[in-house]
């Protein structure tokens, strides 16, 4: 079956060049207590930048994602710790009392760990783990634990990620799918964008016939504050290539991750 190609604009600044996807991309979101749908607007590009980036190879965009280094962590740690000291004072606490003396530094190093995905690049993970293989049956890794941080409230998001793809003469080391999840989830996120980033990275790296990604997650911004719905879960999906175009392929993937 011949698939149409679609050009995707940069996704929240994480992709610097247009990405050519197999088929389209789709995303659904639902909650056990409520349902909603939203879409992220692509960041506009100046005409000159768009013309320049369109001439670059498709694969380049997943090679240029690191925005923070270990050296950056060392340099920014004192200012992060000072910011947490300010927060403690703003909450009415005394940063000098015994229990809080080291809290600003602990909180700063913890936040750097929670967002360590900014220090990593997909190419570092995948460069030696893509193999030529004459395999064209569905590959699925499900129930990948995921921990992230809501970019709206800086509180945790946690849940499970299910990934499936149909190889096109190339396969990826299975553990690397979990590493892709780790890189993108360890950033400030919204679940909709996280789902698409994982699917797009796999598509760019392998050029498979299709990719499906489903995330089921609990958002502490819904559980601990606001509506305080303790049992709510949010489900998002991105389907690319035949996973979007062929209902039978999509249904097989969804049935397998639920089994």
What does the model show?
The protein is α+β, with helices and mostly antiparallel strands and 259 residues long. It is 36% helix and 23% strand. It is built from 9 helices and 10 strands. The chain has helices spanning 47-53, 70-90, 103-114, 122-126, 174-185, 191-206, 220-223, 242-245, 247-258; strands at 5-8, 19-22, 29-31, 130-132, 139-150, 156-166, 170-172, 188-189, 210-219, 234-241. The protein has a 6-stranded mixed β-sheet. A two-stranded antiparallel ribbon has the order 1-2. A hairpin with a 5-residue loop joins β5 and β6. The chain is flat. Mean pLDDT is 81; it is low at 1-59.
Radius of gyration: 20 Å
Poorly predicted segments: 1-59
Element pattern in H and E: EEEHHHHEEEEHEHEHEHH
Which structural category do the helix and sheet elements fall into?
alpha+beta
The overall pLDDT average reads 81
Strand content: 15-25%
**What assembly state would you assign to the polypeptide chains in this entry?**
single chain
Instruction: Please give the largest β-sheet.
Output: 6 strands, mixed
Q: How are the secondary structure elements laid out?
A:
Layout (H helix, E strand, L loop, with lengths): L4 E4 L10 E4 L6 E3 L15 H7 L16 H21 L12 H12 L7 H5 L3 E3 L6 E12 L5 E11 L3 E3 L1 H12 L2 E2 L1 H16 L3 E10 H4 L10 E8 H4 L1 H12 L1
Short description:
This protein has 259 residues and is of the alpha+beta class. The protein has helices spanning 47-53, 70-90, 103-114, 122-126, 174-185, 191-206, 220-223, 242-245, 247-258; strands at 5-8, 19-22, 29-31, 130-132, 139-150, 156-166, 170-172, 188-189, 210-219, 234-241. It contains 9 helices and 10 strands.
């Amino acid at each position: 079956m011949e698939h149409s190609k679609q050009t995707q604009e940069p996704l929240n600044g994480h992709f610097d060049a247009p990405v050519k996807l197999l088929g389209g991309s789709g995303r659904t979101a639902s909650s056990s207590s409520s349902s909603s749908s939203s879409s992220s607007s692509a960041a506009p590009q100046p005409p000159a930048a768009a013309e320049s980036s369109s001439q670059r190879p498709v694969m380049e965009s997943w090679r240029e994602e690191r925005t923070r280094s270990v050296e950056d962590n060392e340099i920014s740690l004192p200012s992060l710790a000072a910011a947490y000291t300010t927060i403690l004072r703003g909450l009415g606490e005394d940063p000098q009392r015994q229990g809080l003396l080291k809290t600003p530094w602990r909180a700063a190093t913890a936040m750097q760990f929670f967002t360590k995905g900014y220090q990593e690049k997909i190419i570092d993970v995948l460069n030696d783990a893509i193999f030529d293989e004459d395999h064209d049956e569905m590959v699925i890794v499900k129930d990948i634990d995921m921990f992230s941080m809501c970019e709206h409230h800086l509180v945790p998001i946690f849940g499970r990620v299910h990934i499936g793809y149909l190889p096109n003469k190339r396969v990826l080391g299975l553990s690397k799918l979990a590493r892709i999840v780790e890189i993108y989830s360890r950033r400030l996120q919204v679940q909709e964008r996280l789902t698409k980033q994982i699917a797009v990275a796999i598509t760019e790296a392998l050029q498979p016939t299709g990719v499906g990604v489903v995330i089921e997650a609990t958002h502490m911004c819904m559980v601990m504050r606001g509506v305080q719905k303790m049992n709510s879960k949010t489900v998002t999906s991105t389907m690319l290539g035949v996973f979007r175009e062929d209902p039978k392929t999509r249904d097989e993937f969804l049935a397998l991750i639920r089994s």
